Amino acid sequence: MDNLITLVAALLYFIAIAMIVPGIVNQTGIKTKAVFVSAVCALLFHAWLLSDLIFHHNGQNLSILNVASVVSFMISALMTIAMFKTRLWFLLPIVYSFSAIVLVIANFVPDTFMTHLEDDLTLMTHISFALFSYSTLCIGTLYSIQLAWLNHKLKKKKSLAINPNFPPLLRVERHCFNILIVGNLLLTVTIITGVGFLSDMLAQGKAHKGVLSVFAWVVYSLLIWGHYQKGWRGKKVTWLSVTGAFLLTLAYFGSRFVKEVILN
Fold first, then answer.
1. Is-contact 75 56, C-beta < 8 A?
2. Looking at the DSSP assignment, which residues form a beta bridge with residue 115?
3. In this structure, is the dihedral angle defined by the CA atoms of residues 34, 35, 40 and 45, taken in order, positive or negative?
4. Where is the Cytochrome c assembly protein domain (predicted)?
5. SS3 category, 91
6. Region of residue 120 (phi > 0: left; psi between -120 and 50: alpha; otherwise: beta)
7. What strands, in cross-sheet order, belong to the sheet with 114-115?
8. Which regions in the chain score pLDDT beneath 50?
9. Cα separations (Å) of 155 from 15, 89, 151, 160, 242?
């Protein structure tokens, strides 16, 4: 049954992508409602499968692939909700492709890392903030990549004005930094809850998570400060946001990848 759910969810994600890409390439209109319906159906099947993969009678399976699938679900869901307000057509194929691929791998290459979050509310709070902050900052990083791409096209004098599927550059920049600010605030809470609630956060084997998370916070804080105080734009914004996302990925998934994939 899970295999069927996985394939249906992946197919629906790729159907949504198939309705977006021609509009971007051919500069034609995109059937927003059809894309939205396909994406929502994919998300519903995605959530159904995640419930089967994660929740068991003896705890929660938070393997690296299951957590990655949760993150991809959150990013896809948030960007689908924003579809009508902001023209995210450049980003949605990337996001939906990632969700479909991770979902398929999580189902067909299962792994186990059992936890018992119901016994530790503080740990569940910390993990929730961590997932939301990581997802939000990843979206902000995607926006910065879109910002760099639009800026590159404009500098090359490519005609974007006649393409109804791309948002104005300044609007993308505004959304990008609004999202980065929210994500950095969530990361701040994540670090505080980690230090305040988890006594073993800096214990052996876990110290790198806290250190890398703080480094990422410094990078994002510097980026936000530099933009509003020094007028930083362009490649500097993209590289700093990508660096921050890379540090968080190492913090959240680095050691787990080594333990579960390489050493397993």
1. no
2. 60
3. positive
4. 37-262
5. coil
6. beta
7. 55-56, 59-61, 114-115
8. 204
9. 33, 21, 6, 11, 22
